[in-house]
From TrEMBL:
EC number: 2.7.13.3
GO molecular function, one term: ATP binding
Cross-referenced InterPro entries: HAMP_dom (IPR003660), HATPase_C_sf (IPR036890), HATPase_dom (IPR003594), His_kinase_dom (IPR005467), HisK_dim/P_dom (IPR003661), HisK_dim/P_sf (IPR036097), Sig_transdc_His_kin-like_C (IPR004358)
Protein name in the entry: histidine kinase
Protein source organism: Eiseniibacteriota bacterium
CDD domains, per the entry: HAMP, HisKA
PROSITE patterns the record matches: HAMP (PS50885), HIS_KIN (PS50109)
Signal peptide from the UniProt entry: none
Catalytic activity: ATP + protein L-histidine = ADP + protein N-phospho-L-histidine
Length: 511
């Protein structure tokens, strides 16, 4: 998965870098097209001409201000209060002008003793552009005279001057400015590219991590660890894929367990077939030999006759037991294929009730089902085999209750299907000693029994029969004591004119 993650990141980088070359070329062309008209020589010359014209107008304003002073026309005077209100920077500017060499001159006729010490100069005081000049009064004191510069003239001069300086700086630094703009563009683009890479890494890790978990799970299952489960991380289809994997492994576990069960069952059937063959053959000769021994004696010794008869009786009894064992082995080894047909569950239960009677078997909820007019449920089954299954389970339940001295009927309950074309259930409930939890998985194994006289084949045959009908059987503890054997069987389709067949009573070996 590391290679896949690297491939995803490489694809993201490639996708992010491919537009970089045309983007840089476009940005370079755009910046060039923006700068070239601004840096045109004609535009710069026009700005300079406008600035020269504005300066000429300012110069004319200065000359007019000087003429007014020479003519002693009314002009503004910077009073002591106005000078005191100036900022340090503004006072420093006035001091710098006052420190210049004396350029005094005498005023026009009629203005005796009036001298212009500092001719008109442009200066900014407060928020106004002014023309100021320093004069020497007749009493030898100095004074600052001022005249406002027209605002439009001042602003135009400032604007043209700044623009010219800016354009000249751009002309001098055209290449560095262009490189700076491109560097800024590349920096922004690089930041976006880095963000894309980080998001790509996060997304790649997020999407490949579940795949890596799935790959590890597949390797583990391939190694035989069917208990493997993977965490269902991620979202969407990937999470569904992990969930499907866990479900698949769960089904594999069930199939493996079923396979082991079938293999074990096959081995037991093969052994049962061999034992039945080996045991069955000598039974008849043994019984005949014992009978011949009994019949061949013609003496009159009563004790010997009694001994012979007792021994022959024992031999015949044991031979009968062995015949039963051989019959059980044969039945277990060669379970016939079920002859399927649609059979009503009610018909099977009616036969069971007729066989055992209400004192030994009761149908739980039968009255309620009749009141609700519950439909008849049909199952696809071999009626004789299903009949023997129920007989075996009921006999076991009755024996279990007898061991505790309980005299209650065995309860049989029909569990209706939750949906059409689903599965119907049967529960056989007793009040016996119950089955310990650690033995519930073993009671269906051949040769396992909890009774001293049991052969351990009855429940094995029951389970094999139920499985042959595509059903299942399980045992659980009953509340208040006892056991519950729960059978589930698939519902079978039935035509409206199908009638239930008769059934033949049969028996089955007990566990």
């Amino acid at each position: 998965m590391k290679d896949l993650r690297l491939q995803l990141i490489a694809i993201l980088v490639l996708v992010a870098l491919l537009p970089a070359i045309p983007a840089v070329w476009t940005a370079h062309s755009l910046f060039t097209q923006i700068l070239d008209p601004v840096l045109e020589a004609d535009l710069l010359e026009g700005a300079r001409a406008g600035l020269d014209s504005t300066r000429d107008l300012l110069l004319e304003e200065m000359r007019g201000f000087g003429r007014k002073i020479h003519q002693c026309a009314a002009v503004d005077t910077l009073t002591e209060g106005a000078l005191a209100a100036l900022t340090e920077r503004e006072r420093a500017s006035l001091k710098a002008l006052a420190a210049e060499p004396d350029r005094s001159g005498r005023a026009a006729d009629g203005a005796d003793e009036l001298q212009i010490r500092i001719p008109p100069q442009r200066i900014t005081l407060g928020d106004r552009d002014l023309l100021v000049a320093q004069v020497v009064l007749p009493d030898r004191r100095t004074a600052w005279l001022s005249q406002p510069i027209p605002s439009d003239l001042s602003e135009r001069a400032e604007l043209l001057s700044n623009n010219i300086r800016w354009v000249e700086a751009l002309r001098r630094e055209r290449s560095p400015v262009l490189r700076s703009l491109l560097a800024t563009f590349l920096l922004v683009y690089g930041g976006i590219l880095l963000l894309v890479l980080v998001l790509g890494l996060v997304l790649a890790s997020r999407n490949t991590r579940p795949l890596a978990v799935l790959g590890d799970g597949i390797k583990s299952v391939a190694g035989g660890a069917l208990e493997t489960t993977v965490p269902e991380i991620g979202g969407g289809e990937i999470r569904g894929l992990l969930s499907n994997f866990n479900n698949m492994v769960g089904r594999l576990r069930g199939q493996q367990a079923e396979l082991l069960r079938l293999e074990k069952l096959s081995a037991w059937r093969q052994m049962a077939r061999s034992l039945a063959h080996e045991i069955k053959n000598p039974l008849t000769p043994i019984q005949l030999a014992a009978q011949q021994m009994r019949d061949a004696y013609s003496g009159d010794d009563p004790e010997y006759i009694s001994l012979v008869k007792e021994g022959v009786a024992i031999i015949e009894e044991e031979v009968a037991g062995l015949r039963n064992l051989v019959s059980a082995f044969s039945q277990f080894a060669r379970l016939p294929d079920p002859l399927m047909s649609p059979v009503a569950i009610g018909d099977i239960l009616s036969d069971i009730m007729s066989l055992y009677g209400p004192d030994r078997v009761s149908l739980t909820g039968q009255d309620e089902m009749r009141q609700k007019e519950a439909p008849e449920y049909f199952i696809q089954c071999d009626r004789d085999q299903m009949h023997r299954v129920l007989i075996n389970l009921i006999n076991n339940a009755l024996h279990a209750q007898e061991s505790l001295g309980v005299d209650e009927p065995i309860e049989i309950e029909v569990i209706p299907p939750e949906a059409p074309a689903c599965r119907v259930g049967l529960r056989i409930c007793d009040r016996g000693p119950g089955i310990p939890a650690n033995l519930r998985q073993r009671i269906f194994e051949p040769d396992f029994t909890t009774k001293p006289d049991g052969m351990g084949l009855g429940l094995a045959i029951v389970e094999a029969t139920i499985h042959a009908h595509a059903g299942s059987i399980a045992v659980s503890e009953r509340e208040g004591g006892g056991s519950i054997f729960a059978i589930t069987l698939p519902l079978g389709a039935v035509e409206s004119d199908v009638e239930s067949d008769g059934m033949t009573d049969g028996g089955m070996d007990e566990t």
